[in-house]
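Researcher: Can you fold this with protoporphyrin IX containing FE in place?
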Amino acid sequence: MNLTLHVWRQKGPQDKGKLVTYPAPNVDSDMSFLEMLDEINDELIRKGEDPIAFDHDCREGICGMCSQVVNGRPHGHQERTTVCQLHMRQFNDGDEIFVEPWRAKAFPIQKDLIVDRSSMDVIMQAGGYVSCHTGGVPDGNTFPIPKKVADYAMDAAECIGCGACIAACPNSSAMLFTSAKVAQLAALPQGKPEARKRVQAMTKALLDEGFGNCTNHYECEAACPKGISVKFIAKLNREYLKSMIPSSTAEPV
Amino acid sequence: MNLFTSTVGRKILMAVTGLLLIGFITVHLLGNLSIFWGADAINAYAKHLHDLGLLVWVFRLVMLCLFAIHITFGVQLYLENRAANSEDYAIQKTLVTTFSAKTMVFTGLIILAFLLYHLLHFTVQVTNPAISATNLPLVDGHLDVFSMVVLSFQKVFIAVIYIVALIALFLHLSHGLQSWVQTLGWSTGPSQDKVTAVGKILAIVYGLAYIAIPLFILARIVK
Ligand code: HEM
Ligand code: SF4
Ligand code: FES
């Protein structure tokens, strides 16, 4: 395949950055998108130029590190696929491909296609956990959890924390990501004691980190490589309402 | 965080005030449609409202609060979201969002501007004094609201202002009439698709019913 790439190049956080055009002749359709970029980089290094910097780790769609907007869509146009699992056979000979970093104020660009996603870690640290005593592994079925509930929590737990939802959101809101964590933990018995505190703390961190507010565009769900549903945002909204009802037994928020 | 500062809390306040405003436009529409039953019907309806006395002022105060809350948070969220957004992508693609969802704050502000004009026109009656009910001859001892409305909408300029504003209302409702279900946490995923369909149909019903009034008068079908 013979392709033309337009890749966002930016030397560092302060640099203005611009799209640079690279011809990509002889692309094998069995390559993954990142392998295709590896080849371009090989060529750049050979010529003594700075290779394109991009994030990646597992290259099998589970770690959430890869983060590229391909032709205006986070992770590219193939549904439920991370960009590392996107293959060149999804493109046509002669295509022009635009490759850009996640764009949001809360994701400062570090270099080229690499953005700093620590703001998502701050949301996690605010409440994406359960507090429990560690020790021996508890016996199986100590907590009876109905299959439906376990499945629901698993669906939410599929989130790999990549940030595509934020990159796609017209408001740069992190609501889908946050709601996946809130919903997963609120559904399970281990997460219930801290449910009120969690939803309050995580939604506060979301605003404090400079993400926008959700206004129900649902672009996040369409972009998510793991198919996380916006029903979890409705669940988060319910959890928030519940946390506002005074209770004498629940943990203070 | 409390309702007035939290990201979810403010959305919930917008949804609740938005719903109450929908309650208002429903009653207002049903009342206004009486114009199709002739002059006596709408004049009697108008007299009914005037006779409520003090209650009218209580109602106006409540409406003012609803609008104030809805607009304050609507504009605030819009500004915060714009600030959170970085520069555009070279190819800007949206997949599922709608024109009406993207223009909520603008259609909202058009509604606000229209509301002010509407009050000056039909309530304070200063924009077209010659054809205001206070200056038209009384019929059976009470104000001739019917003639004021008909004479107004026979003017193309006034009818167009109303029709444009009502199109903005229709767009606002076609997102708003379904969005609140998600905001209040009542959607369960697949159910939201049905809610969205019902919301859009309702928005069309409201839009057509409201626009029919200036349109039918402009076309001299009602006179
Ligand atoms: C008759 C008047 C109005 C009605 C019936 C109405 C109704 C609604 C409803 C039901 C929503 C959905 C809330 C949700 O998503 O949960 C909404 C959203 C919104 N309204 Fe209004 N509204 C009216 C006037 C206005 C005005 C005057 C403004 C002025 C700025 C405005 C600005 C907005 C904005 C920006 C949103 C989107 C908020 C968001 O999704 O976060 N609205 N409206
Ligand atoms: S919700 Fe989806 S898009 Fe958002 S961070 Fe999780 S996996 Fe990525
Ligand atoms: S590199 Fe791990 S998900 Fe793409």
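Model: Folded with protoporphyrin IX containing FE in place. The pocket of protoporphyrin IX containing FE (ligand 1) is lined by residues A 215-216; B 11, 14-15, 18-19, 21-22, 25, 70-71, 74-75, 77-78, 104-105, 108-109, 111-112, 172, 176, 179-180, 183 (CB under 6 Å).
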